[in-house]
Write a structure and sequence with these properties.
Cofactor: FAD
Protein name: Pyridine nucleotide-disulfide oxidoreductase
Shape: globular
Domain Reductase C-terminal: 340-421
Strand content: 25-35%
InterPro entries: FAD-oxidoreductase/Apoptosis (IPR050446), FAD/NAD-bd_sf (IPR036188), FAD/NAD-binding_dom (IPR023753), FAD/NAD-linked_Rdtase_dimer_sf (IPR016156), Reductase_C (IPR028202)
Number of helices: 10
GO molecular function: oxidoreductase activity, acting on NAD(P)H
Number of domains: 3
Structural class: alpha/beta
CATH superfamily of the largest domain: FAD/NAD(P)-binding domain
Distance between the termini: 53 Å
Largest sheet: 7 strands, mixed
């Protein structure tokens, strides 16, 4: 069932949708698209349906807050696969459809339009929706999130009339948007409820570095900031009222405070999991013949202290998709992949490997004033993560240290004259054979 294309990336679902697929994938983002492709790579010969709630062929999400928002990359360059790929691989795109109910016993889902689609195996890759404010004015015009192409298209369409922007949330999305918009000449204020930006994902030295970089370009950053409501006039945002009564004027408000996992139908059907849907080592949920992958999949991760977590990253989406596809194709391989992430802000390239949560020590490698440095995180003496700013070599070489949980003296890690791969080798040479590392 091929789709006729009009605008680049926009596909139209054929009128006749099959009533059953051997594998039905709900969610046409990174995870869903990779799962479909990986099934074919694994020689799966059954029927595959890829169902998504947007009218576009699968596309990249990370550039939405970077190159697409800045209009440096057109949408057709965001497509994950060429348009003809799906038809050539006999993968049906079922776009512009949302699943609202799941009957796990009968092996079928129901779409918002009332269409019932059966499945042999179901892969849930629906990701999540942007978390919204709950205060008064959260839904007035001029308040935006950045999660889909439609979100950014709407935002960009309003920009010519915008002078001042308030960004609520000092995570990656918020800071990336702030970088783009201040570069476009807008006055930007970032509000972060925590004592520092990036507090959930990075150590204090990295937070301080990015706060300095943004402030140097005119961005106002307020931490420990609590929003009371969005001020509005004639149904449109005019400012943000803080808990202390201060009103920050704004022509536009961007909310970047995380996502809510899109797992309602799974939970309603009895799937286990309190933060998303819990999956096992091959991405199976507690429901028969149902897998979950990507942003919505809660899993025990060996690189996060073996605690159940959700990872919102392209790496996790792709690797879990491949894991689920191999299991369905009959060649199961447990999921074990080192998490990695990245963020582009101004001319700064941040590359992260590993999970720094629960670290008990940090090592600064290099000088932040040079804008090329790394922050290395340790737990009980082992390397568990690195944040590398404009330092790709550290990122590449540090990956092995994270994979192995290497023990390396802090002085060696901090020595920029000693490449991390050499530091790792020297550390190995110092470990007695009987240590069994």
């Amino acid at each position: 069932m091929s789709a006729a294309i009009t605008d680049p990336g926009q596909a139209h679902v054929a009128a006749a949708v099959p009533s059953h697929y051997d594998v039905l994938i709900v969610g046409a983002g990174h995870a869903g698209a990779q799962a479909a492709a990986a099934l074919r790579q694994a020689k799966f010969g059954g029927t595959i349906g890829l169902l998504g709630d947007e009218p576009y062929s699968p596309y990249e999400r990370p550039p939405l807050s970077k190159e697409y928002l800045s209009q440096k990359k057109p949408f057709d360059r965001l497509l994950l696969r060429p348009e003809n790929f799906w038809a050539e691989k006999h993968i049906d795109l079922l776009l512009g459809q949302r699943v609202v109910a799941l009957d796990a016993a009968q092996h079928r889902v129901v779409t918002e339009a009332g269409k019932a689609i059966g499945y042999g195996k179901l892969i849930w890759a629906a990701g999540g929706a942007a978390r919204r404010l709950t205060c008064a004015g959260y839904d007035v015009a001029g308040v935006h999130t950045i999660r889909s192409r439609a979100d950014v298209d709407l935002l960009v369409g309003e920009l010519p009339q915008v002078e001042g922007v308030v960004v609520i949330g000092g995570g990656y999305i918020g800071l990336e948007a702030a970088a783009v918009l201040t570069g476009a000449g807008r006055a930007v204020t970032v509000l972060e409820a925590a004592p520092r930006v990036l507090s959930r994902v990075a150590g204090a030295p990295l937070s301080a570095f990015y706060e300095r970089e943004h402030r140097a370009r005119g961005v106002v950053i307020r931490t420990g900031a609590t929003v009371a409501c969005i001020e509005a006039a004639q149904g449109r945002a005019t400012g943000v009222r803080m808990a202390d009564g201060t009103v920050l004027p704004a022509d536009m408000v961007i909310v970047g405070i995380g996502i809510v996992p899109a797992v309602g139908p799974l939970h309603a059907a009895g799937a286990a999991g309190d933060n998303g849907v819990l999956v096992d080592a091959v991405c199976r949920t507690s429901l028969t013949d149902i897998y979950a992958i990507g942003d919505c999949a809660q899993h025990v991760n060996p690189f996060a202290g073996d605690t159940p977590i959700r990872l919102e990253s392209v790496q996790n989406a792709n690797d879990q998709a491949t894991t689920a596809a191999k299991a369905i194709a009959g060649t199961p391989v447990p999921y074990r992949a080192v998490p990695w992430f990245w963020s582009n802000q101004y001319d700064l390239r941040l590359q992260t490997v590993g999970i720094s949560a629960d670290h008990d020590a940090t090592v600064l490698r290099g000088d932040p004033d040079t804008r090329t440095f790394s922050l290395i995180y340790l737990r009980e003496g082992r390397v568990i993560a690195l944040d590398c700013v404009n330092s790709t070599k550290d990122y590449v070489q540090g990956r092995r240290l994270v994979e192995e949980g290497a023990r390396i003296p802090a002085a060696q890690l901090a020595d920029t004259q000693l490449p991390l791969k050499i530091a790792g080798i020297e550390a190995d040479a110092c470990v007695p054979e009987e240590a069994g590392r």
